[in-house]
Amino acid sequence: MNDIEFHQPRPLLLHCDNQSSITLTKIPCHHDRSKHINIRYHYFHEKVEQGNVMVVYCPIENMVANVLTKALPRPKHMKCLTFMEIIEFHD
């Protein structure tokens, strides 16, 4: 018999700064505030449940993607670009 090892692929890691969204991925609660969510978005909850996606909290101060979605003060903008290795910046 062959000794073949099958490795479970690591889950996709998704950083999120919205704790309510994180809760909805783990516990698909249905109440007045979340009833507007379309059924097709429950696919994401299934992927979290299957272990294919892991959603973790990231405070807004550390959210590097903010540089792509909003205007930031120059120091924070430069910090995000440096973290993404787009430029080198030193305070």
Topology:
Layout: E1 12-16, H1 19-26, H2 42-50, E2 53-57, H3 66-69, H4 74-83
Parallel strand pairs: 1-2
What's the number of structural domains?
2
Helix content: 25-40%
Average predicted local confidence, pLDDT: 80
DSSP strand count: 2
Measured between the Cα atoms of the first and last residue, the distance is: 59 Å
Can you characterise this structure?
- The protein has 91 residues and is of the alpha+beta class.
- The chain is 34% helix and 11% strand.
- It has helices at 19-26, 42-50, 66-69, 74-83; strands spanning 12-16, 53-57.
- It has a two-stranded parallel sheet.
- The model has no long low-confidence stretch (mean pLDDT 80).
Q: Outline of this structure?
A:
The chain contains four helices and two strands; from the N terminus they run E-H-H-E-H-H. It has helices spanning 19-26, 42-50, 66-69, 74-83; strands at residues 12-16, 53-57.
Q: What keywords describe this structure?
A:
2 domains; 4 helices; 2 strands; 34% helix; flat
